[in-house]
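Reply to dn_fold:

You asked what the input looked like. This is it:
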Amino acid sequence: MNVFYEDCLGSYMNPLAGLNSRIRNNSILASAFKKEYCVKYDEHDLIQKIEATFPDGYGDWSILQRNQFLEMTTLLSGYLLSSQGDRMSLGHSVEGRYPFLDHRLVEKAFSWPDNYKLNGFSQKHVLRNSFRGLLPESIIDRPKLPYQAPDLKAFIHEGRFAPVVEEFLSVDKIREYGVFDERFIARFLKRSSERTLDRLGYRENMTIVFLLSAQISLYWARHPRRDELDKRLCMVDITDQIEMN
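and this is what came back:
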């Protein structure tokens, strides 16, 4: 977590609060595209667009309140609940329900003072104390961890990249699709393969997921699957079989 925020520790008081780290990290992705596309990352323009969404009185809110607002308006519905929530669960025929997002609970929590929600370094302070004595202390006091796939670490085995990386980020595939700068890809792969797994951080994870997702999407756009529809699977026999005596 320290690595995630290390470049922005001096700017936490500005209006963007916790978004500074994401804005800065995303600038890396602009460097991955071929130079002739002139993909530019205008941080100032992005900041202005975000600031235009601020409600009246935003500047008078506490740091925690500003962070809560930005996380909900930029990440909650479109990313956490959509990409990582509903799309993932419904893709496996599971419909998710999120009790902590009940509007009555959210409205109540917003009326509480900051020290109820973040007491020093005790995160989820009210939630932890509410269940103290009902759940084991090992669960109550367990450090907060992000839910995430291993990302880049999942694609490196004994110092070698997995076949999917070698295929879709190969020089041939990069040149064939013509989107990314092959020198950027080569530097990224070389640097990542030379580091030990414990030194691979957020930026490397973000970059590998972005590059692989884009390359695989380009593959399927060029090679759409055209399976013949089995009409028998679309029909249900609803007639009752009655045994005649």
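The chain has a mean pLDDT of 82.
Hope that clears it up.
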